[in-house]
Amino acid sequence: MKKLSNILLATLMAASLVACGGAANAANDANASQQQAATTEQTTTTTEAAPAQTTSGGGIGVKTPKKDPYSDPLKIAWIPSNATEANGTAWGKGIQQELAYWPNVQFDIYDGESDADKQNTVLSDLIAQGYDGIIIQAINSAVLAPTVTEAEKAGIPVVCINLDVDVPHAGLVAMTDVEAGYAIGERIAEALNGEGNVVVITAKPGASRGERLQEGFEKSLAEHPGIKMLDAQTAEWNMEKAQVVMNDYLTQYGDEIDAVFAHNDQMAEGAGMAVQNAGKELIIWGANGETKALEYIEQGIITGTVYTNCYNQGATAARVLLMNIGSTVDTSTLTKTPVIKMPPMTVDASNVDQITADMRW
Fold first, then answer.
1. Over the Cα atoms of the chain, what is R_g?
2. What is the mean pLDDT of residues 219-233?
3. pLDDT: is 223 or 29 the higher one?
4. pTM of the predicted model, to two decimals?
5. Which residue, among 43, 52, 75, has the nearest Cα to 4 in the 3D structure?
6. 274 with 295: CB under 8 angstroms?
7. I need a labelling partner for 223 at 20 to 30 A (CA). Which of 114, 129, 236, 328 fits?
8. Within this chain, do residues 24 and 165 fall inside the same structural domain, yes or no?
9. CATH number for the domain that contains residue 35
């Protein structure tokens, strides 16, 4: 494979891209009638960055690549927020499968252990060890920002998956957030015929993905004034905490609740168990599309989720990192982070069988 040219990388950072597999596209097509209001946004990948320039008037700088990423020895690290969580494991597998094509690459995984300070310490150590590239799922966008800048200045490109940092860097490969939240709001409004009450179980405060999911969800609610949001409480991405929050909702609001939106599948699963134990039936939507959530849909414990192929997302992050390692673009001079969005698919009992075993994570 030829090393990516400077022009091609500049095109990547300035153009609109679509980053999905054929199976996900086919599934999106099959599900299009359920997503009419959001289809255009959901199937488009937008890359946001300043236009590439090499003039002396400011713009993106150039560098001499230290290595050919497809032949020289490389050390690449993956730092998930928690290596035992389903999506972190799937992203890591996708990265590993992609890098396995290149025998010159050493691939290492460092568990963030759900601790931003731990991630920061690991990141600093990897800079000191002279790693060639780093992929990270940032727990805290502010805490990690200075160290990511340090890595970029040291010539080590950093690509984030899903959860980003507050400073420009080589790239972000993310699930759609605003679009996914909007699509879930539309599905709930459709199921309730435009009238009803919903409670929300939110992500950790300050988590950018949770904030954007909520933004899209509230955008949908604004278009359906008959749907009221009774409450929104955090369960910090955690299933057990979500079950506690849902029990509290059931105690406080009882039969007033018609639907639940959780910012990830694990919290939707916790809500589903609480509702089932209470002997009730509610519309419950999560987001991400992990295997357990798909099984809960099949069992009727939750209603639906927004599925993203995390294997493909991890592989895409690896490709972006390799391209940046071999590019003459100096990513430390970027004024915006290039963003690649993975197209989502809303899944419920009507189409969950389209997510085949090899697509589940």
1. 21
2. 97
3. 223
4. 0.75
5. 52
6. no
7. 236
8. yes
9. 3.40.50.2300
